[in-house]
Each structure stands twice: as C-alpha cells, then as structure tokens.
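FAQ
Q: What does a multi-component entry look like?
A: The components come first, one per line:
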Amino acid sequence: MNPVKKQISEGIATDLTSTMKMVYFIDLGNFLDKKVGMMIYMFPNVGGRKLYRWVRNVGESDAYSRNVDALKSISSRFMDDETLAKLYKTVNTLKDQETPSEENDQRVKDIMLVFRKISKYIKDQLTQEEKTIFGEIQNIIGTAASNASKSIEGSIGASTTQSEPEEETDETE
Amino acid sequence: MKRTEYHRLIEETNSLMEKMREEFSIVREGEGIDNLFNQLKDVLQKITMLPNNVINANKYQEHEIVDGLKEIGYSYKKPIGTKLHFFDKKTSISVYLDQRTKHITLQP
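Then the predicted structure of the entire assembly, as tokens:
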C-alpha cells in the first residue's frame, strides 16, 4: 500500500474506533444487564453474545461501578431510538454489500459519513456530565471498540469483489 | 399525621379498588387489578407532588424513571442543561426530568 493510502486507511480506523467507543458507551447499561442492546442492528451477524463478550470486563471497573445508574439511564434512553436504529442498519447494509474493488473507496467514504452522523447524533443527546463519564470510560472500552471496528473492516474486505480481468481473445483463430 | 397529597391518592386508590371489586366479581385479592393497584401504591410511596405540576421522584434511580416514562409512551428528545426532555407524540405533552433533583416537570 502506498504511504498516502496507508495514512488514510489508518485515519479511517482511528475515526471508526473513536465512534465505536461511543456506540459501545450508550449500550453499556444494556450489555452489563445482559440485555441485547442497539448494537445488534449494526452487527446482526456477530451476535449479542460476542458483542457482550468483548465488553464484559468493563463491569468490574471502578468507573463503571461509580456510574451504573447514569449508564443504565443512557442505555434506556437510546433503546429503540428509531433514528439510531436506521443509522446502525445502514452501516450493516453498507459493510456487507458486495462491492467491486474500484467502488470500494466510495463505500468506505459512505460508511464514514454515516459514522460521523452517528457520532454527532449521540453527542447531541448526552448531557455535559455524561460526556465527562464517557471521558472516564472510553479507555476501558477501547479494546471492545477496536474489536468492533476490526469486524467492520473485515466485513468490508470480505464483501469487496475483484473485477474479473477481460479475457484475451486470440484473433489468429 | 399531616394529610398529604400522597395520603389522598392512596385513599382514592383504595376506594377505586373497592368499586372495581364490587363491579367485577372476577377480581380477587392478589390478582390482576389488585397487583396493578399495589404497583401504583408502590409508585405513590416513592413520589411526592410539588406545586406547579412537579413530581419529586428522588426515591427512584434515574434509569427507573427513564424506563417508566418510556413505558407510558414518552420518547427521549434531547438534554437541556441538566434536564432531559421527553415527549409524548399522542398527547403532545413534554416532560422534563432534572437529573440532579429527580424532579419531573410536566408541560402541556
């Protein structure tokens, strides 16, 4: 991969993980109550159990214990939110949609656009105090968010199709 | 003991429950409507009516209040300072939950 493309790709991964932390954050109250949260709309193929497994250690942290009520309140508020469900479903469709390699850059751009919308939507719905709690918790959910980002990158990779090379015709025949 | 809004509501609940029992012989102690009223009493014990349509729900945890509001049809809109704005599309009533005081304000 050329250095510019590599830099862009790394930038996308960072952006993705950063939004994914927020996605996990608003679902923590559900996961740690062993309920299927909103993330299932984005990862129906990964499944609730795996999504929970990535984040289960968070329940043992001090930051989580200190903020249990706030986290549950946040999860309850976002649960069944129609706008968020639509955005999550869009990510799911885009990441799994078979796409020819030459159109893949556009698909990644589309996914990133939806992620920016998700990030803005969530931020707009959190109070200042809750944003502070996110600051406390985001390091603890880093691994889970990174696993979820990798899953998205994997889906994009798996659904990218290589264009078949044009068959050479032998004109002498 | 000073008669409070809570006592008045409990009395009304009891009287309503008696009427229901008389009208519907099927309602037996500990079943159906009884359970409903017991839940209602439980709620009334945890809230206090304040002036100007304000409910003090500070004996509940925030997530319990949020769950309750969503159950009765309010959806979360956005935060306004330390208050959370909920809205019921059917009745066009807004409810504001103050995260610090756990006071709920109704605004038609």
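Q: Is there any commentary attached?
A: Sometimes. For this entry: Chain B has one domain: 2-105.
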